[in-house]
């Protein structure tokens, strides 16, 4: 009885190593336990996740085009598209865990996707600070995207370098493989630190805003418009607006989910490739997949173009609220091009990243 190449090692091979370059399907010589994941991914769950991320990408992109929130929408949509591709790859692995292309696709996409989603989140803080009250922030609004976006990208670069080192180790250089894993973990730890710093600065600003506007009273009148009192009234109206509150809670919920996901990733990678945590599908689905999906759903449903229109490039913004932003610009010393620019008709135009 003859055997095919996929059924076992060639007779001329002195020692056979099950791997993605030598195994193409599950056989007695290439059992599923020898794959990095160590299991058949659940097809139904992964199809559901792929569809969920795909819908988030379409929804975010559609709202972004409608409301002209370019930077935020591009970052979130790109992250969702990568996540969709990653879980489509895992759905393929449910049929063949040794499918090398599908494995590489899901590894790269699921690592990269949340990084882009984080960029979309980081862009919101600049506009929240500039709109509500720049004077209450530890830093000027323009600082936040200038610092957090490159810092987040640097985490991705570090993880990519670690992946390259691990890939170059081959089958025999275990020490080099371990060094690559450590670099990857360093990139994930740095991402947690950056997320923590973002959460800390956001909390400082929001607590200051709560204290400041909690003790402020008064209503805006025509005579107050454009004065300091009128500016504070407009800022309080923005702070107490129900849509603003829902937007802030949605961003906070998405932030918490992304932070949980990154902390889980540290534990997952700490034991190296194919460790017990990495081969536990339920923990991956709950702490990785659904954490990122919940964040993306929140960022899509509570898109800033609808719930926080000051991030929009559209000039269809309530003139009274625009006036409040102009007052905040004078009070906080924010450069004009950061909050608004004058159109050819002389009207103030709200500008978002």
Automatic annotation (TrEMBL):
GO CC annotation terms, alphabetical: fungal-type vacuole; plasma membrane
InterPro entries: RTA1
Keyword Transmembrane: yes
Coiled-coil intervals: none
Membrane topology category: Multi-pass membrane protein
Keyword Membrane attached: yes
Major subcellular location class: membrane
Location(s) in or outside the cell: Membrane
Keywords annotated in UniProt: Membrane, Transmembrane, Transmembrane helix
TM region(s), chain numbering: 47-66, 73-93, 105-125, 146-170, 182-207, 246-267, 287-308
Protein name, per record: WGS project CABT00000000 data, contig 2.27
Record organism: Sordaria macrospora (strain ATCC MYA-333 / DSM 997 / K(L3346) / K-hell)
């Amino acid at each position: 009885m003859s055997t095919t190449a996929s059924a076992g090692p060639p007779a001329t091979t002195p020692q056979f190593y099950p791997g993605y370059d030598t195994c193409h399907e599950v056989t007695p010589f290439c059992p599923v336990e020898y794959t990095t994941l160590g299991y058949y991914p659940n097809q139904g769950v992964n199809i559901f996740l792929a569809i969920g991320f795909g819908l988030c990408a379409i929804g975010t992109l559609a709202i972004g085009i409608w409301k002209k929130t370019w930077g935020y929408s591009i970052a979130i949509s790109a992250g969702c598209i990568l996540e969709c591709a990653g879980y489509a790859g895992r759905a393929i692995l449910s049929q063949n865990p040794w499918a090398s292309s599908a494995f590489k696709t899901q590894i790269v996409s699921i690592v990269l996707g949340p990084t882009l989603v984080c960029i979309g989140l980081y862009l919101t803080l600049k506009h929240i600070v500039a709109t509500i009250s720049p004077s209450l922030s530890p830093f000027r609004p323009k600082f936040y995207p200038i610092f957090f976006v490159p810092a987040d990208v640097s985490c991705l670069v570090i993880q990519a370098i670690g992946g390259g080192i691990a890939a170059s180790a081959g089958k025999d250089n275990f020490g080099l493989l371990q060094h690559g894993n450590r670099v990857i973990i360093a990139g994930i730890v740095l991402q947690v630190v950056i997320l923590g710093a973002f959460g800390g600065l956001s909390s400082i600003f929001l607590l200051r805003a709560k204290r400041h506007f909690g003790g402020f009273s008064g209503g805006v009148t025509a005579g107050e418009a454009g004065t300091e009192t009128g500016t504070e009234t407009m800022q309080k109206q923005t702070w107490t607006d129900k849509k603003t509150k829902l937007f802030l809670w949605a961003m906070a919920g998405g932030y918490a989910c992304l932070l949980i996901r990154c902390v889980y990733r540290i534990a997952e990678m700490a034991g190296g490739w194919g460790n017990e945590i990495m081969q536990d599908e339920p923990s991956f689905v709950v702490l990785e997949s659904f954490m990122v999906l919940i964040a993306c759903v929140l960022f899509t449903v509570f898109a800033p173009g609808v719930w926080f229109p000051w991030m929009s490039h559209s000039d269809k913004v309530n003139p009274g609220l625009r006036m409040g932003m102009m007052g905040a610009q004078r009070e906080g010393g924010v450069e004009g091009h950061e909050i608004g620019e004058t159109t050819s008709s002389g009207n103030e135009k709200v500008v978002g990243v």
